Amino acid sequence: MKELKIFGVVAFFTLFLYWGVEPFAHSQMHKHVEGHGFTYDGTADNAEAAARVALAKESGVKVKEAEATAAAKKTFWADVARISKLKGNATAGEAGFAMCAGCHMDGAPNMGGVIPPKLDNAGALYDKNYLIALIKNPAMASNVDHKYADPMMHPMGSVSTMFTDDQSIADVVAFLKAKKSAEMTNKEAFDQACGRCHAMRYAKTSQLGDTPKFKYKKDELSYQVKILEEQDLVKAYMGKLPPDLSMIIRARGEHFMETFVENPQGHLAGTPMPRVGVSKEGYEKVKAYLTEIGDPSKPAREAIGPWVILFFVVFSALAFLWKKEKWRGHH
Amino acid sequence: MAKFEKANSINEWMDQRLAVNTLKKVMQTEYWIPKDINFLWAMGMVLAATFGILLVSGIFLLMYYKPDVNLAFDSVNYTIMTEVGYGWLWRHIHGVAASLVFLIIYIHMFTGIYYGSYKKGRELIWLSGMLLFVTFSAEAFSGYMLPWGQMSYWAGMVITNLFSGGSLEAYGLVEWIRGDYVPGDAFLTRFFMLHVLLLPLAIIGLIVLHFGTLRIPHVNNQEGAEIDFEEAAELYKAGKVKESKVIPFSPVFLSKDIFVMGVYFILFFYLTFYHFQFAMDPVNFDPADGLKTPAHIYPEWYFLWSYEILRPFSKDLGLIAFGIAQVIFLALPFLDRSPNVAPASRRGLFHIWFWIMLIDMLVLTFMGKLPPQGIWNTIGLVAALTFFALWIALPIITKSEKKL
What ipTM score was computed for the predicted complex, to two decimals? Predict the structure, then answer.
């Protein structure tokens, strides 16, 4: 069949073209960052620190500092691993949690750049090791220690004066895991993990949460001013206003989003964005919400797609029969 | 006024006033197409259908799109995608069709080159076709500006910058085109007008011309054989359809076209529903930001080969090379000096020329997207030089071609 042979040639070159401009080009254009399944044990941090030591040695600048940071990170994550193995006492942790609630409460004001999140779902939303690391040293845990000469300068830096021994950290994390793991909606997961810095205008939320409807223009405007003031505080803390996340799920690939949320420094070295430490289940909820807002047609596409394709399969079959009929006797 | 008899049917009534029966004969049942063809001959109708889809989906999108730098992005990504019923479907159809139309154009073009369908008598078919390619390119580029994402903005910046003419430094011309120092509101509204009015009008006019140019020289066939169409048509009309070398456009030729279209639409809607990412660059889902250059700026895949001809040379040389590459295909009927109308496989050296040209353009396309560094640069330069070498070689090898 000559026509099939010609079709084969056309199909081959078309697929080859596609391969070259899509999978191949993208594999060459972007840095590949390996994911680690939303577990936090400092592997990436230690590797980054080691790479920085090598770089410093090469240029001969600030070698001592780089080595000190690498050593500190190693010790820090070894400590985290040790605390993780301790058996936490949730009842004892409840007393410790009272200290957290001083800042982490409903309607808390901006403190040092961001509004402290509510912790009602923290046990489910965040990974256990990450919570331990965060209470031990927030700057180190969120991998933005390069921003702080003194870890106490981190907005949550004072936590290290509240939980001074390993057992108290293990206890409060046990409490969070046992008592603060309430089921949450996808939106709640997003609001707590991302929404305090990132607005999402397609979902009508800002850094202050859902934008209410106002009866009077005056009230609406004064709320707008409040948003701007909050954004200024976040901007001052972050260096720039973190981007609106309405369309981020389509602007970045799934793999990028996952690995970026796990460890922002892996893709964007030096970024002020902290690692938020979501657990695997927590991230699934965040991703579902980003998809719901940024790619709302997904369910409709999946529902209609097969029928449209089926229509054209039947159409082609009928057209083929018609063609056969019309060409009868022509050859 | 002419004298009109009482008509006995609607058809007769129409025929008296509009000669519909004659029109039907001339345009369909007695518009003769060679019988010796394959499915590649259906690409013209596939293109017409795809253009129709672009037009219809475009009309739906036009109802909700807002050409304003402050509103454009959200009107596309929020209003159309979320609030308008099936707005997402029209948008994905429009995006996928805009990409696929170029795939089919390239297949159509290379079919013409392979079978020598631009040769003596058929030059105008080729020229009007190439003009369509140019206007489709302009249409694609202007449409790419409209969502006002990062790629829209930066592609607009890069392409309009080309008009500064390298060392001529004609920045005044660039500003005149943009209506501003950088792409802004005037730029967007101008390209909006071009995309939805002037260029579609030009395309429709050129399609009519393209069809018209086919009429006298007739469509080519698989062997490039010269056919006495009148004699063959008489044979067909006398019922000797097997002996006749022609078929009527409608319904015989059309029945095959419709089947090919059906198969094409399976692919089309598979891409629309499940695999549209290739036609809708993720970077363009970030809103335009004049203070943040994306890490990689590259055009859509169908412009990559000419982009790569621009890139490996110095500024002025690159621009000249780019300019030549844009128009050189127009000269094909005049650079091919061989009198043979035959498939490339029977034309000796030209056969080799054809496949090298095809592969070279694929290589240019691949390199055009990759970051310009290391080995990619060298490959790109060699491919660009090969492209020009092929065009210089064309008149020489075709001149010495043996007459078949």
Answer: 0.95
